[in-house]
Specification:
By secondary structure, this protein is an alpha/beta fold. The chain is built from 28 helices and 10 strands. Helix 2 packs across helix 3, helix 7 packs antiparallel against helix 8 and helix 8 packs across helix 13.
Amino acid sequence: MERKTAALLAYLAMEGETARGTLAGLLWPDSRDTTARNNLSQVLRRLKELLGVSGVEGRDTLCLCETVPVDARELARGGSTWTADAVGELLAGLVYEDCEALNDWLRGARARMLRMQQRALEARTLLEEGEGRLPAALETAQRMLQLEPTSEDAFRHLMRLHHRLGNRVAALQLWRQCEEVLQVELGMAPSATTRQLAHEIERSATPPPLGITPGRRALPLSVVHPPVLAGREREWARMEEAWEARHPLFLVGPPGAGKSRLMVDFARSRGRWLLLTARPGDFDVPYATHARSIRALLRQHPELVLEDWVRRELSRLLPELGGEPLPLPPPPEEKARFFAAIVHMLRRALREVAVLAFDDAHYSDPGSSELGLYIVAQTLEDTAHGRFPLLITSQRTDETVWNGARIRQAVDAGLAELIQLEPLDSEGVRTLLRGMEVPALEHMSEDLARYTGGNPLFVVETVRHLIESGAPEGSFPSALTPPARARAIIQKRLARLTPEALRLAQVLAVARSDMGLEQAAAALETPTERLMKAWRELEEAALVRGAWFSHDLVGEVLLADSPPALRELLAGRMARYRAPGKP
């Protein structure tokens, strides 16, 4: 029912006033008209319960109430407030294969939404740049690229802005990244416009930073692109050993641990390499990850002649290969032949590649994950003799999709090596800060290590936050708003907690000090035995260590997101527990 409710909101936001019968037919195409209309009435009642007010108005035709804030509608109207929110795909993660007409509409609406998002972000980028707010324009352009990683417009904005801010090297790094991304994902070279911009940046001197709004400072290049291997010497050495042994590698770790940068830097050091990526929307679409990767490979190798049986099997993924495509997913009795065809094609297409890097594997759909491990097993001997590229895969450890079970199975079978990226120790944080070439930062290394828990991304984002606000004067501020990117990552981890574990975490945040289970139980008015499971959940989620958070950022995010009334309630209970005469 919630799936249909979301579709109803999205449709009305994008299309405006719509006949009740049209909506009922879209959402319940296989039901009789009376049944479909009754179902629609139930969805409308459910929506009112969720919102607390009527979200949709009308009788024969329906439309969204003006009082209901809906991002898609705001964007469709060209509202300026939309760009303050996170970008994302319309109805991300939802599929409507049981509603053919709705599914067809959604494909088109997602494309429209993407174009509107890009136009809105680009307009904001140009506005901020025109007003001289170059760091803000840079952040908005980065969101453009995040939304569509192959957008040349986004790459050009970023190149130009970095150059205007005095970061000529960063601008040229983005040019090289643009070349790689377009070649891997689309099998094409950048346009003449982008090449001309890169040429102009290459031959020009670095301009002085211009138009910086007071209170915000331009970020040094050493902060924008800090040394990736700070504190990762041991991991690099293990990767060298795996390279010599020709063992495929799994790099795993929490968000922000530096998996992608470590993988890419190592791959580049080995010679010719290829980068493939999984994307957040892949999980619900069978073999989506490999379909995109194989399509990109074939675009890069138009000279590749495939046997008829291989083309026939690949048509499950790529209907454009001709003929009547075979169904996907394949039936169990045909899966082995389907997998074999893909391995056969990869052996031919990757002959000259030294390293095949596969990033963000935690987003892979289950079929692609199974196929990926099959490829590792089937090419093990070829990899050992240098006839197949070394495969390096990176993925998060805190994603429920993989949860490490399949990786461990491959490692235990001797098919691969597993490298777990842990937080940087205090010396690693100090090395990272030293490489940023901002003298005041190194004196804050202990405070930054504690605040961020040694997570490299959190360190970088916190440093950027400090510099842009003009804070670093040699001492770490007593109060600091959590950086937006780090905050979003922590919020995602907190969202996975059970209600009891989240309440326990909120108590720790309000206490602002180490707290035992007995004290927490008193504050929550819950038996200690019940909280033991919640405490273990926090430990397994790497949110607490000992009797406190794994890093102060967790507590700061919890405090920022907790309603004031809840903070006051918990603080009052803890004060009563600690009052004289209390046991």
